[in-house]
């Protein structure tokens, strides 16, 4: 499934405060159920995330999986910064998820791990002993446009 992410508003402050290094830090994707309600204006750290998918008997690892090879680039002609990375695979899982939460796990605790963005799948996804593969949109996991 090809998806695009929605930025948490306070993620921009985390970047300005040097809490996130997209290329050097471990950027992860965690899965949440439909009972989590994203709040783009108030949620800033992983401790704000509720209803993460259970790791008991699901083959899901609490905290999620890392995005391989996070990259960033800028196109001067369009004033767009593009943030990309490899697809994320949750292998042989049996679970139900509605949201994918992108965050920086490098600081090390849920109260200090900055949130970056989230994906709303639009409906519950429920693999049964199957792979859940999150393929990012060709335009990037997310983009930022600099006002001209």
Protein architecture, described:
The chain is mostly beta strands and 148 residues long. The chain has one domain (2-145). It contains 1 helix and 11 strands; from the N terminus they run ββαβββββββββ. It has one helix spanning 11-16; strands spanning 2-3, 6-7, 27-32, 65-66, 71-75, 80-84, 88-93, 97-104, 115-125, 130-136, 142-145. Strands 2-9-8-3-4 form a 5-stranded antiparallel sheet. Strands 1-10-7 form a 3-stranded mixed sheet, with no helix packed on it. The chain is globular, with a radius of gyration of 15 Å. The mean pLDDT is 95.
Helical amount among residues, as a percent range? Answer: under 10%
Question: Would you report the number of β strands?
Answer: 11
Tell me, rounded to a whole number, the average pLDDT. 95
SS summary, helix count: 1
Could you say which overall geometry the principal axes of the C-alpha atoms support? globular
Structural class: mainly beta
Ranges with pLDDT <50 over ≥5 residues? none
Spatial sequence of strands, sheet with the most strands:
2-9-8-3-4
Portion of residues in beta strands equals 35-45%
Element-level helix/strand string: EEHEEEEEEEEE
Radius of gyration: 15 Å
The biggest sheet, with number of strands, parallel, antiparallel or mixed sense and barrel status, is: 5 strands, antiparallel
- Head-to-tail CA distance between termini: 33 Å
Domain count: the total is 1
């Amino acid at each position: 499934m090809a998806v695009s992410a929605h930025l948490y508003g306070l993620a921009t402050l985390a970047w300005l405060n040097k809490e996130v290094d997209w290329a050097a830090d471990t950027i992860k994707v965690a899965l949440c159920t439909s009972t989590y309600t994203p709040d783009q204006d108030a949620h800033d750290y992983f401790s704000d995330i509720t209803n993460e998918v259970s790791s008991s008997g699901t083959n899901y690892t609490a905290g999620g999986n890392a995005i391989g090879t996070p990259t960033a680039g800028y196109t001067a002609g369009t004033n767009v910064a593009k943030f990309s990375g490899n697809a994320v695979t949750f292998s042989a899982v049996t679970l139900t998820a509605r949201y994918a939460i992108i965050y920086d796990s490098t600081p090390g605790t849920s109260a200090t791990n900055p949130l970056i963005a989230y994906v709303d799948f639009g409906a519950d996804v429920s693999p049964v002993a199957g792979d859940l593969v999150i393929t990012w949109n060709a335009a990037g996991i997310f983009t930022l446009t600099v006002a001209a």
